[in-house]
C-alpha cells in the first residue's frame, strides 16, 4: 500500500503539472501573436515603401496593331492597359518604343526606363545601369515626355529630373520579374 501511495502523484504535483501546461499554452499563444504582428508590420512596410506613384490597373487587353482604337492610358508613359501581343526586346534601344508595345513588357514583369533629352552622358549612364540586367529591363528615348527620366512598371511610375542610381536600382529591384498576366 505504501508503494501505491508513492506512485500516485499527490494533489500538489498535479496542480504544478496543470499550471505548467497552462503556462506553456499561454506562452505559445503569445509567441504566435508576436510573430503575426511582426510579419504583419513588415508586410505593411514593404507595401507602404514601394517606390513610384501608383496608378489604377487598366487591365491587359491585347490589341492587334498599335493603331487600333483603345481606351486612353491613365499615365504618361503608360503603366498598364491595352497592348500588343508581343514585347520589345529587353535591353537598350535608340528609338522610342510605341506605348502599346512597352505596356506588354510591363505586363511580363519588365521595367521600362525612358528619357527625354539630348543628353549623351545621361544616356550612357542609364545604358550602363540597364545592361546589368540580362532581361526584364528596357531603356529607350521618349520624346516630349515632361520628365527627364521616367521608370515604369505595371501600375507604377517614377519620374526623375536627374540621374539617381540608388532610386533607379531600388525601383528596378522592387518590380522587375513581377508578372501581371491575369
Brief summary:
The chain has 182 residues and is α/β, with parallel strands linked by helices. It has helices at 2-7, 11-48, 99-107, 120-130, 165-175; strands at residues 53-54, 91-92, 111-115, 137-141, 149-153, 156-160.
Secondary structure layout plus pairing:
Layout: H1 2-7, H2 11-48, E1 53-54, E2 91-92, H3 99-107, E3 111-115, H4 120-130, E4 137-141, E5 149-153, E6 156-160, H5 165-175
Parallel strand pairs: 2-4, 3-4
Antiparallel strand pairs: 1-6, 3-5, 5-6
Q: Biggest β-sheet, characterized? A: 6 strands, mixed
CATH classification class of the largest domain: Alpha Beta
The stretches of 5 or more residues where confidence is low (pLDDT under 50) are none
Strand content: 5-15%
Order of helices and strands: HHEEHEHEEEH
Helix content, binned percent? 40-55%
Total individual domains: 2
Arrangement of strands in the largest sheet: 1-6-5-3-4-2
What spatial form do the alpha-carbon principal axes imply?
Answer: elongated
CATH topology of the largest domain: Glutaredoxin
Radius of gyration from the alpha-carbon trace, in angstroms: 28 Å
Whole-number mean pLDDT: 88
Secondary structural class: alpha/beta
CATH architect. name of the largest domain: 3-Layer(aba) Sandwich
